[in-house]
Amino acid sequence: MTETISRESTATTGDRDGSGTTAERTHRAVPASRDHGRQWRTVRGRRKIPRWVRRLTGPFLLYLTWQLVTSFGIVSSRSLASPGAVLAAGREMWGSGELLDALGSSLYRVGWGLLFGVAIGLSLAVVAGFFRLGEDVVDSSMNFLRTIPVIALLPLIIVWIGIGEEAKIFLIVIGVVFPIYMNTFAAIRGVDAKLVEAGMIFGLGRPGLIRRVIIPGSVPGFLVGLRWALGVAWLLLVFAEQVNTDRGIGYLLNHAQAWNRTDIIVLCLAIYGLLGLLSDGIVRFLERSLLSWRRGFAGT
């Protein structure tokens, strides 16, 4: 501190008598600011908590609340099973292979539903986003259809396809298409026109503009749509697996409700939550990988 004040005093004296130039004053002031910045980063580094620890704080608080509510008898065990009972039910069902089989069936349905839904939604967004004729034909139809509740289509889907695996996957496909389309289309049309003009000035043709300007600019919107689509897929899976099925997480949930097994019900809900958290982590990884060039506000 004393040394810094002395340097500032010397710099001020130099200004008054004309002996110090601007470059010399800057050179004398830089070491002090660097030392201060280095010291500030060190203090912050000592107090900083790893981000993965902070992200686990929320789920841990939920678990702690759940444990306290069941331990003190605020809610009866018939209404809400304790964490210990849920873990015991999970170990039992995992040992018998029932839980693994149900999880595999659910992942199979969601996987195919996402694959077809993302492909269809992305294709429609490209057609409507790149071409004005495509926008006139596709966008109006998609805005009409997206207001129809997907669950309301379930009886019609059963009439069209039946009650087999195809109907369950088709229901998830319909739910996934709309968030992918809406967010990707908006992202394509939201690319700054000045960037497109700059690309044309540098000699980029239509393929070059799409590859170097429009696609990088629309990737953030697509990832937002993918995050919403993953949530919708897990939500629709619950409804899909309650229609003529004998396996899957939704089937276990429905079967446990009939026998009032709150431990299995909570176990299935916890599995849905963990799968959603894992899906969100995958999208966040894609964002860090594909959008490493973008520098946005990351919070304070």
Structure description:
The chain is an all-alpha fold. It has a domain at 85-290: MetI-like fold (Orthogonal Bundle), CATH 1.10.3720.10. The protein is built from 13 helices and no strands. The chain has helices at residues 2-17, 22-47, 51-55, 57-71, 83-96, 98-130, 132-145, 154-161, 165-189, 193-201, 206-240, 249-258, 262-290. α6 packs across α12. 23% of the residues are buried.
Task: Explain the layout of strands and helices.
Elements: H1 2-17, H2 22-47, H3 51-55, H4 57-71, H5 83-96, H6 98-130, H7 132-145, H8 154-161, H9 165-189, H10 193-201, H11 206-240, H12 249-258, H13 262-290
Kindly summarize this structure in a few lines.
This protein is mainly alpha-helical and 300 residues long. The chain has a domain at 85-290: MetI-like (MetI-like fold), CATH 1.10.3720.10. It contains 13 helices and no strands.
Global outline: globular
SSE order: HHHHHHHHHHHHH
CATH architecture of the domain at 85-290: Orthogonal Bundle
Number of helices: 13
Q: Looking at CATH, which topology of the domain at 85-290 would you report?
A: MetI-like fold
Distance between the termini: 28 Å
The unreliable regions are 1-43
CATH class of the domain at 85-290: Mainly Alpha
Query: How many distinct beta strands?
Result: 0
Percent of residues in beta strands? under 5%
Average pLDDT number:
79
Major sheet size, sense and barrel closure:
none
CATH superfamily of the domain at 85-290: MetI-like
Radius of gyration, Cα only, in angstroms? 28 Å
Structural class: mainly alpha
- The portion of residues assigned to helices is over 70%
